[in-house]
Specification:
- The complex is a heterodimer of chains A (637) and B (230).
- With 637 residues, chain A is α+β, with helices and mostly antiparallel strands.
- Chain A starts with a strand and ends in a 9-residue tail after the last helix.
- In chain A, 32% of the residues are buried.
- In chain B, the strands form two sheets. In chain B, strands 3-2-1-4-5-8 form a six-stranded mixed sheet, sandwiched between helices. Chain B has a two-stranded antiparallel ribbon with strand order 6-7.
- In chain B, α1 (36-53) packs antiparallel against α2 (80-88), α1 (36-53) crosses α7 and α3 runs parallel beside α4.
- Chain B is of the alpha/beta class.
- Helix content of chain B is 37%, strand content 21%.
- In chain B, β2 and β3 form a beta hairpin.
- Chains A and B meet through β2, α2 and α11 of A and α5, β6, β7, α6 and β8 of B.
- β2 (33-37) of chain A pairs parallel with β6 of chain B.
Chain lengths: 637, 230
């Protein structure tokens, strides 16, 4: 016989406290009630000589004993008194279900996940009814589905609702989590049961780490042949901005060599195909080129049929190649045309007579004339006439030398011409916030003014001065256009891959504070260490990384398939157990104890409680019947 | 003499018997939940109203330890308001002493009459002898014993600490069903002794629990005594 919920000292302490309170209340209840009466003459005749007692003495011991006994019975019911021996065999197990992406592979009509659920249910049937089980789902992340639970319906429901994820199994993390939970929360340690295929990454398989004690592995046999896409990379060619260089990586996860056709489609039209012969357990790359300015969806597809079709197709969204429209108002158009010969720039040359303050363009070049009205778009002024300059002119100097370039700013990046002399140049008065790009002894001769409409003023004509022979001239204009319209020169990288951790190397000039990593408009946590950007994505999504003038789009829609299969150490138990130690037989008494306690209190109330006062009260129906039996006292004499 | 003859005129005068209402205002009338004192005042008011309607004259004599100043009422029903004011102004005070009250009453009001005594008759001394003196001096007695339910059957049980409302005397006792029966028996015996006294003196006795409505008491037990309409 033992108490399930309380230890004996706890029971004694609680019962002692309750008994003390009960006796105190009993003495208080049995104390004399004060009453004011009309006369004492009739009370004297009803008084019995032996009835006057001390109030602190227990006057109705049977009542008190009955109350104490009833309270003891109720307390024993709360403490769950049980006949038999204490069950020391019930344990707390942790059931790890492999919910990695690989569990979505098909064998016949069923998936590997169905096999995992079936094995988990088979194991649960062997577990004794008193044992508690915690269900944990594990892929790249570990998430408990239940607490330690003895209710089999809850456990079966958690098993039933487990679905394959998108990432590979992180076995080490799952086992560490289970071991930690077992140490912290389990009443008596049971087994850690892993049900799954045991496919893990090659890196994890290479690490030999100790597994927790009491680990049982129930493997799901996976004779699955699969070839799948691993990665797709797209970037614009450095030679031709309209040309996309496409790299596709395909891996054979099976045990036989296979030849798989790889096809590319853009907007539903085929753009290329290759046949790849891939040895088992190896990866092969294929390269394509495709020229387009248009935006659209690029699809890579393995034209094969295997048991894991989820990794046979990948889709990436290609951005359009935008053209920057520039209007050049100049009388010497031929001089300026070489400066805007880039394919990303669409330059339109007009005479000053055709001047419009707001033409259909992003940037305007005003070359050496006074416009009739101020420009309403971003403007580059070249040698404006006297009084027409948007920025104040300090002086016009002859034979001046450009001494300094603002190379730390995007406007002067890469400009390193030394000793360049100009026959004549306007020197400008820089205001606060202005950016001097090129400076002479007397002041800046190229000045940029940020604001809502960005403005750059050149105090000399670059194509009529000595500068026309310098490489710095097209670079200066390229810098000006990049400063005014940075998105035109943004470098694009598109990557298709699987969910999980993504690492990429950043450019040297990228500041970590100015970076942005987002998915569907929401920020994604990331780290930058030694110029390596790392972030983690647990679900299929598209992540955009904006770092300087480089935009990287990661379309992480491919399932992450692990390459290796875990080989458990010899001390790990395998397969379903034959059985666990039988559970001790006990009899629950709490219901009967509760009923007995309640009956005891009811009996006490009937025999000694206020029910007596109720029965003898003059207002009670019983007493009214008694008065009716004595009509002579109410009748007029 | 206008007619040179002697005439003898004969008149018949019906003597008027004074009606006096003695109202107990001792503290014992103020015990219990039902309020014997209020009940007694209502009953006295009702009796006065009946007398006023019949153009009779009555007087209300409050008493506790001794006899207090009376209030005479007469002259018709429109004079009822002063009676009500007088009764409303009374307050329960002091202990009951029938011996002193009767001595003073007899010496003050020698004329015989009908005495309607509204009281619980719970005097620590013996009230029967003083009441007998009333009858001995030729008064007709109508004893109306008012009692609350708890006066006859106390509802309490267990250990009791009792205090006399008039004297402040205390008594501790254990009260159970047997004691309750003995108590009720003693109360009934006391009521019976009052009734016997009234019968012996040619008077009348009415026992009225305060649960009886006043109008039911007037048209029921009191009407049957013919003290009200007789």
């Amino acid at each position: 016989m033992f108490l399930l919920n309380l230890s004996l000292p706890e029971f004694v302490a609680i019962f002692g406290s309750v008994s003390g309170l009960l006796v105190a209340l009993y003495l208080l209840d049995r104390s004399r009630k004060k009453q004011k009466v009309a006369t004492l003459r009739f009370w004297i005749s009803s008084q019995r000589p032996n009835e006057v007692k001390h109030r602190k003495r227990i006057q109705q011991p049977w009542s008190l004993l009955l109350q104490l006994l009833s309270i003891a019975l109720l307390l024993l019911a709360v403490a769950q008194l049980q006949f038999g021996t204490r069950d020391r065999t019930s344990r707390d197990h942790i059931l790890i279900l492999d919910t990695s992406a690989w569990m979505g592979a098909r064998i016949g009509n069923a998936t590997l996940m169905d096999a995992v659920r079936s094995s988990a249910r088979s194991w649960l049937r062997v577990v004794p009814a008193a044992d508690r089980v915690m269900v944990v789902r594990a892929d790249a992340l570990v998430s408990p589905a239940t607490a330690f639970e003895a209710n089999r319906e809850v456990i079966l429901d958690a098993i039933r609702q487990s679905r394959p994820g998108s990432s590979a199994l992180n076995l080490e993390q799952a086992l560490a989590f289970a071991d930690r939970v077992r140490k912290l929360h389990a009443r008596r340690s049971g087994e850690i049961v892993l049900v799954g295929s045991g496919r893990i990454s090659a890196d994890e398989a290479a690490l030999v780490r100790p597994v927790p004690d009491g680990l049982r592995f129930i493997p799901i046999s996976t004779p699955v042949e699969d070839c799948g896409l691993r990665k797709i990379g797209l970037r614009r060619s450095t030679a031709d901005p309209d040309l996309w260089d496409i790299f596709v990586s395909v891996r054979n996860y099976g045990s036989n060599s296979r030849t798989v056709p790889l096809a590319l489609q853009f907007g539903g039209a085929p753009v290329g195909s290759q046949k790849l012969m891939i040895a088992p357990g190896t990866e092969q790359n294929a390269a394509f080129e495709y020229k387009t300015r248009a935006a659209g969806w690029l699809e890579a597809r393995l034209l094969t049929s295997d048991s894991f079709p989820q990794d046979d197709r990948a889709l990436l969204e290609l951005p359009p190649q935008k053209l920057l429209k520039v209007v050049v108002y100049s009388n010497s158009q031929e001089l300026l045309k070489p400066l805007f010969a880039d394919s990303r720039v669409q330059a339109e040359f007009r005479s000053p007579a055709q001047y419009e303050p707001k033409p259909d363009a992003k940037i305007m070049i005003v070359d050496g004339f006074r416009p009739s009205s101020p420009p309403q778009i971003e403007t580059v002024w070249i040698e404006p006439p006297s009084g027409a300059s948007p920025i104040g002119v300090l002086s016009t100097r002859k034979d001046v030398e450009i001494r300094d370039w603002r190379t730390d700013h995007v406007l002067g990046a890469g400009l390193r011409v030394k000793g360049l002399r100009l026959a004549s140049a306007q020197v400008y008065a820089a205001a606060q916030g202005d950016i001097p790009v090129a400076e002479t002894e007397g002041g800046p001769v190229i000045l940029a003014r940020p604001g809502k409409l960005r403005t750059v003023v050149l105090g000399f004509h670059p194509m009529r001065s000595e500068m026309r022979y310098e490489l710095a001239t097209p670079l200066l204009f390229a810098n000006i256009i990049r400063w005014m319209s940075p998105e035109t020169f943004r470098r694009w990288e598109l990557n298709g891959g699987s969910v999980g951790t993504v690492s990429t190397t950043l450019d040297d000039d990228v500041q970590a504070q100015s970076m942005s990593v987002s998915s569907d408009g929401e920020r994604v946590p990331y780290t930058v260490q030694d110029r390596i950007l790392r972030f983690f994505v647990g679900n299929p999504s598209t992540v955009r990384v904006l770092a300087g003038d480089r935009e990287m789009v990661y379309s992480l829609t491919l399932p992450q398939v692990a390459e290796a299969v875990w080989s458990p150490p010899p001390d790990v138990r395998r397969g379903l157990p034959r059985g666990y130690p039988a559970q001790a037989v006990t009899t629950d008494l709490w219901k009967w104890l509760a009923i007995a306690g309640a009956l005891g209190l009811l009996l006490e109330w009937i025999l000694f409680g206020r029910r007596r006062a109720f029965l003898v009260s003059p207002r009670s129906p019983l007493m009214r019947l008694r008065w009716k039996a004595k009509p002579d006292l109410r009748r007029v004499s | 003499m206008r007619l040179e003859k002697l005439f003898l005129k004969m008149f018949q005068v019906e003597p008027r018997v004074p009606v006096r209402i003695l109202l107990d205002t001792s503290l014992s009338m103020n015990t219990g939940e039902s309020g014997k004192f209020d009940y007694a005042r209502k009953l006295a008011a009702a009796l006065c109203y009946v007398a006023l309607v019949r153009l009779d004259t009555t007087s209300v004599h409050p008493f506790s330890e001794t006899l207090q100043d009376p209030f005479r009422c007469g002259g018709g029903r429109h004079r009822f308001a002063p009676v009500a004011d007088f009764l409303m102004g009374l307050e329960p005070l002091g202990r009951t002493s029938y011996a002193q009250m009767v001595r003073k009453f007899v010496s003050t009001y020698p004329q015989r009459g009908l005495l309607i005594i509204l009281s619980d008759f719970l005097d620590d001394g013996d009230c029967l002898k003083p009441l007998q003196h009333f009858a001995d001096f030729g008064n007709e007695l109508l004893l109306i014993q008012l009692w609350a339910e708890e006066d006859r059957t106390p509802p309490w049980s267990g250990e009791l600490d009792l205090e006399d409302a008039e004297t402040g005397g205390r008594m501790e006792l254990s009260f159970d069903e047997e004691a309750r029966t003995a108590y009720t028996r003693a109360f009934d015996e006391f009521s019976a002794s009052l009734q016997e006294l009234a019968n012996r003196c040619g008077g009348r006795y009415v026992s009225l629990p305060t649960t009886t409505p006043v109008e039911e008491a007037i048209f029921g037990p009191l009407a049957r005594t013919k003290a009200v309409v007789g």
